[in-house]
Amino acid sequence: MRRFELALPRSIDDCLKILTERAGEAKVVAGGTDLLPQLKNGLLTPRCVVDISGLAELRTVQRADGQGLRIGAAATARTIELDPHVRSKYPALAESGALVGSVQVRNLATVGGNLCNAAPSADMVPPLLALDAEAIILGPKGQRRVPLTSFFLGVRQTVLAADEMLLEVAVPAPGPRSGGHYLRHTPRRELDIAVVGVASQISVNDGVCAKARIALASVAPTPVRALAAEHALVGQPVTAALIERVAEVAVEAARPISDQRGSAEFRRHLVRVLTRRTLTTALERARADRRED
Amino acid sequence: MAKQILRCAVNDEAVEVLVQPYATLLDALREDLGLTGPKEGCGTGDCGACTVHLDDQPVASCLMLAMQARDRAVRTIEGLSKGALHPLQEAFVRHGVPQCGFCIPGVLMAAAALLNEKPRPSEEEIRYGIAGNLCRCTGYTKMVTAITEAAASMPQGASSR
Questions:
Q1: Between chain B's N and C termini, which has fewer beta carbons within 10 Å?
Q2: pLDDT value of residue A2
Q3: Strands (E), chain B
Q4: Nearest residue of A to residue B55 by CA position?
Q5: Which fold has domain B4-79?
């Protein structure tokens, strides 16, 4: 491993001060499951690493007064996977947390890391995009909120400035009769990286789609929403035939590359299949949803 | 670069040790504390040979900085059981599970964490619970048999320690 200094801030203010003083040469670590391999192979060479894993206030998943969730940047994938409230009200997100690495990795890997590392294949991102989540970012000038749709700039690139840090992810409550589902395709069942991942979130009112979100991973430099497919659903009675047609439309949002994990053609095929499957399950869940808020 | 003082509990004992800021927890355990049970297989969190418990949860110690274990409780295979072998270890011996043996400390720590959470796991749950542990001798079938047997031999609901 390359040598670096390690800062151990005792508060968020402390952390921000270090990031300001060391802007450009500091890197935040939370779980370290993405960062440490990059430090070991020399892909990243920060002079200073700032550990936020000790900041307890960043490790929690809280219900925000019936207004959804506030997920601390250092909350682990394992927390997301097991949290009873997340499992019952945000099943797509819980499912994606359970797919991150092995249990040994999920106990370390964090939601903030999954976002800030900005891999196109990040599993927890599509469900968060489908839930209209926002990144709460803290910098020297205070807080700013960035919708996740604007958070990613490219492969491993985000809107975070060198002196800023991700504080938490705000997830609005999906509203009544809403359901979600996340699926990915991997050749192996465990410990693999998505060839394609799809999250769907849908709200229905008397069988008619009131709101729809479809988000895709591993088909573009950043995770993307399938906007045209979403529009094709809203206001329509949701039938199997419509879902099939919408899945075709979702393919248009994909700009996949061919690599060792799969060809562009295979990825487009997977977008269609996984969109159909996630929408079908999301619809079943929406119909069964009896939430109060 | 100045070393830092890591204070934590390792196998139920308070530990104070000087570590490099860039040392992994695995480095500190093996090099500074002489606990060579956890192994470095891949160094990237794929193989699970470095699995230890952090506050009773299994983690890949090669993916953690040593200082990230400050004020926390670490358990390695050396501290899995006091005195006698752990029922999992006994079952592994009985079934001749270890072949080359390199993956075994990690597998045992993953299995022990699983049994703490699910005292009577199904075969599916066992396979999922050790999915993060690679055995290049490919001795998985015997592992599943031994873990199943160990689970059945342990009093339900009791701690594995």
A1: N
A2: 84
A3: 4-10, 13-19, 51-54, 57-60, 73-75
A4: A107
A5: Ubiquitin-like (UB roll) (3.10.20)
pLDDT band at B157; cut points 50, 70, 90? low
Range of the domain at A238: 178-288
Domain assignment present for A183 = yes
The domain B87-153 belongs to what CATH superfamily?
A: [2Fe-2S]-binding domain (1.10.150.120)
Q: State the pLDDT confidence band at B160, using cuts at 50, 70 and 90.
A: very low
CB atoms within 10 A of CB A225: 20
Q: CA-nearest residue of chain A to B58?
A: A104
From the list A40, A104, A107, the residue facing B48 with the nearest CB is A104
CATH code at A220?
Answer: 3.30.390.50
CB proximity B63 to A under 8 Å: yes
Count of structural domains within chain A: 2
Backbone angles phi and psi of B31, in degrees to 5: -85, -40
Q: How far apart are alpha carbons A145 and A159 in whole angstroms? A: 11
Q: What is the ipTM of this complex?
A: 0.95
Q: Give me the pLDDT at residue B158, please.
A: 52
From CA B106, how far away is CA B7, in angstroms rounded? 23
Task: Show me where the domains of chain B are located.
Answer: 4-79, 87-153
- Measured CA to CA, the distance from residue A82 to residue A151 in angstroms comes to 26
CB contact under 8 A, B131 and A102: yes
Give me the phi and psi of A175, to 5 degrees please.
85, 180
pTM, entire model: 0.95
